[in-house]
Amino acid sequence: MLEVIATCLEDVKRIEKAGGNRIELISSYTEGGLTPSYAFIKKSVEAVNIPIHVMIRPHAKSFTYTEEEIEMMKEDIIVAQKLGAAGVVLGVLNEQNELDEEKLADLLSVVDGINVTYHRAIDDMENPVEAMKALKKFNKVTHILTSGGQGNVVDNIPVLAAMQKESEGNIQLVVGSGVTKENVKQLLDETGISQAHVGTAVREGKSCFSEIDPNLVQELVQIIK
Question: How many domains in the chain?
Answer without folding.
Answer: 1
